[in-house]
């Protein structure tokens, strides 16, 4: 059985409440429950933190034993050299995911410290971005 983990960064615990015009009205917990049912033949875990160091620790913890990591580092994508360096240092492939189209937002969101080390990037498809990332690990 494939083993994947979704790692979410700051403020993604507020999905369903936060800026629904950008992020939608579904909570991540509701979305994750549906995805686990749909992909019941793979193990999908989830970790969320608003703290940069906790995200780095989790990436290091799972980065040598999982089949894939789906990472939405949120705002840290654009600011954290440390998270980018961690993605470069681990063996597990990482798909960078963003719910919104980061290239249609503020200029600072066009830079990613994760992207140069990621297997791929999926942006702008809402929560479906996560499902597209899952599918990338199944092919």
State the CATH topology.
Rossmann fold
User: Main beta sheet, described?
Assistant: 5 strands, parallel
> What's the order of the H and E elements?
EHHEHEHEEH
Q: Uncertain spans, ≥5 residues at pLDDT below 50?
A: none
Give the overall form: globular
Q: What do we call the CATH homologous superfamily?
A: Dehydroquinase, class II
Gross CATH architecture:
3-Layer(aba) Sandwich
Number of domains: 1
Q: Can you describe this structure?
A:
The protein has 139 residues and is α/β, with parallel strands linked by helices. Helix content is 33%, strand content 19%. It has one domain: 3-Layer(aba) Sandwich (Rossmann fold), CATH 3.40.50.9100. It has a 5-stranded parallel beta sheet with strand order 2-1-3-4-5, with helices on both faces. Its EC number is 4.2.1.10. The record marks 18 as: Transition state stabilizer. It holds the Pfam family DHquinase_II. The active site is at residues 23, 98.
Spell out the blueprint of helices and strands.
Elements: E1 3-8, H1 20-23, H2 28-38, E2 43-48, H3 52-62, E3 68-72, H4 81-89, E4 94-98, E5 120-123, H5 128-138
């Amino acid at each position: 059985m494939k083993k994947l983990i979704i790692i979410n960064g700051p403020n993604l615990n507020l999905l369903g409440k936060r800026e629904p015009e950008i992020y939608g009205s579904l909570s991540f917990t509701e979305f994750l429950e549906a995805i686990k049912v749909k992909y019941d033949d793979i193990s999908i875990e989830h970790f969320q933190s608003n703290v940069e160091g906790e995200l780095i620790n989790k990436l290091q913890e799972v980065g040598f034993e999982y089949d894939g990591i789906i990472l939405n580092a949120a705002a840290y994508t654009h600011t954290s050299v440390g998270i980018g360096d961690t993605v470069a240092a681990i063996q597990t492939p990482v798909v960078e995911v963003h719910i919104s189209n980061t290239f249609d937002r503020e200029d600072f969101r066009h830079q990613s410290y994760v992207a140069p080390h990621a297997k791929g990037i999926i942006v702008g498809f809402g929560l479906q971005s996560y499902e597209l990332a899952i599918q990338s690990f199944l092919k």
